[in-house]
Amino acid sequence: MVSGLLGVSLLFITVFTADGFLYARVQHCRFYSSELQDIEYIDSYYYNKLEFIRFNSSAGTFAGFTDLGIKNAHRWNRNRSILDAEMGDVQRFCRNNVKVWFSSVLSSPVRPTVRLHSAPAPSANQPSMLVCSAYSFYPQQITLSWFRDGQKVTTGITSTDQLADGDWYYQAHSNLEYMPRAGEKISCVVEHASLREPLVADWDPAMPGSEKGLIAIGACGLILGLVVPLCGILYYRWQLRGWDLVSTD
Ligand SMILES: *[C@@H]1O[C@H](CO)[C@@H](O)[C@H](O)[C@H]1NC(C)=O
Ligand SMILES: *[C@@H]1O[C@H](CO)[C@@H](O)[C@H](O)[C@H]1NC(C)=O
User: Fold this and answer.
1) How much is the pTM?
2) Which of 109, 166, 184, 176 is nearest to 146 (CA)?
3) Residue 84 CA: which ligand is closest?
4) Which domains does the chain have, with CATH numbers?
5) CA–centroid distance, residue 83 to ligand 2 (Å)
6) Ligand minimally distant from the alpha carbon of residue 80
7) Of 21, 94, 124, 197, which has the maximum CB count within 10 A?
8) End-to-end Cα spacing for the chain
């Protein structure tokens, strides 16, 4: 009994010192349109980070990637009830769930969060940049454009594609070459399915967004820096007064 318990403890220590082992099964439903027939169901088995066997509903069979995986893929592919169960998961697991996703999530657009900031020039002889970023929007299609004094800017712009965040949302960025000129007004205009009207972000050259935060933190620091010594002086004087009362008698 005692040795059995010890065995378990030793096992735990081994697991921890070896940073652990992980056996995992990951089921994916891949779909590229709202046509539910197009769904591909992938059922993968991993040991640590190595995928060793995978069921693919398009192929309708298992494939192995290590000796162990190849051996078992061969066994499972000959067993009708295993293959039927996997194909059944295309309906049970994928199509049923994706129907819910489409009706409740993917059909409702999500507004982008828009941020405008300046970025230093990439090198000394290049102009600095204004960067307009749209974050966490859905669906993917978005337009970012620049206006200077009400005129659409067509040159000096580089934009990224919409980048998938990996959680249904997207982000996109647009850079404008920027030479500050007095009195000009620069705006980034965002058009997206979630917005009734285009969203306009105006550039405020006096206060770039991130520096506003820094100034606020600096101001708090300054005020604290003044208040704390002041309290110290008042306390010191109050103490002194207390001391004076006793000593002047
Ligand atoms: C699944 O199998 C199909 C057809 O063999 C192939 O085109 C597709 O790339 C496979 N998918 C994955 C994720 O392995
Ligand atoms: C097929 O797999 C099922 C589930 O693992 C098992 O119960 C059954 O005995 C297997 N059939 C054959 C012929 O190996």
Assistant:
1) 0.51
2) 176
3) 2
4) 8-106 (3.10.320.10), 113-202 (2.60.40.10)
5) 10
6) 2
7) 94
8) 83
